[in-house]
Amino acid sequence: MVMSVNSIRFVVGIIGNVLSFFLFISPAPTFKRIVKNKSVEEFHPYPYLASTMNCLMWIFYGLPFVHPNSVLVVSINSVGLFLQIIYLLIFFIYTGKKYRLQIVAILCAELVGLAAVVAGTMLGLHTTARRTTVVGVLATFFGICMYAAPLSIMWKVIKTKSAEFLPKWLSIACFLNGICWSVYALLKLDPYILIGNGIGAALALLQLILLVVYRNPPPKEGKKPSTVELYDVV
């Protein structure tokens, strides 16, 4: 029996949900390290702030009155949003005043921005096609931001010749997730999911290249190499 395109797309979407879950759970080793050391060290909150806005936008995009028949998009991004809140809470507890203020300020800006998008979409656009276009473009933008966020420390990686603080599992999960959702989007053309995840896969590949090139950092003077080898690539 030959499966229809819709059936194949649904199966790919389920696989995408599983991969996305691993994407969202992949920072767990990083936060285990933070809790153990009671310090965020050189880790940044930006990937998790970007991911929070990304989840919020895709949840809104997948609602029936914006883009019908997108339950798989809503389900996984709801899980992702819950996990991002937990990560940011841990980061907030173990970071200093500078990052705490940034986290609060950026989260407030994200909520205000989301409220403006919701109000403008629901009051100014009266068809799902137009809502899909506007929200899709915005969701794509924030999706790219989420994928690119770990590159905020790219210069530090190149300068120190160490990928220790570039999250390995997050980069791997981003790459696989981007590929899977790109296939999902191609099966029943959804340009917003395709563009965001296609670019995301390319950015994640760049991160993986950095992880390979700088997987063995130079030893620090007077210190033994860290036992938490986040930069090792199998």
Give a structural overview.
By secondary structure, this protein is mainly alpha-helical. The protein has 9 helices and no strands. Helix 1 (5-25) packs parallel to helix 4, helix 2 (28-37) packs parallel to helix 4 (71-94) and helix 3 (46-61) runs antiparallel to helix 4 (71-94).
Name the descriptors.
single chain; mainly alpha; 73% helix
Report the portion of residues in β strands. under 5%
Q: Which structural class matches the secondary elements?
A: mainly alpha
Main sheet, how many strands, which sense, barrel?
none
Reading the helices and strands in chain order gives HHHHHHHHH
Give me the count of strands.
0
The separation of the N and C termini measures 39 Å
What is the arithmetic mean of pLDDT?
A: 83
Helix content: over 70%
Radius of gyration: 19 Å
Which geometry do the CA atoms define?
globular
Spans of at least 5 consecutive residues whose pLDDT stays below 50 are 223-234
Tally of individual helices: 9
Could you write a compact summary of the structure shown?
It contains nine helices and no strands. It is mostly helical.
Describe how the helices and strands are arranged:
Layout: H1 5-25, H2 28-37, H3 46-61, H4 71-94, H5 97-124, H6 128-148, H7 154-160, H8 168-187, H9 191-213
Helix pairs in contact: 1-4, 1-8, 2-4, 3-4, 3-5, 3-6, 6-9, 8-9
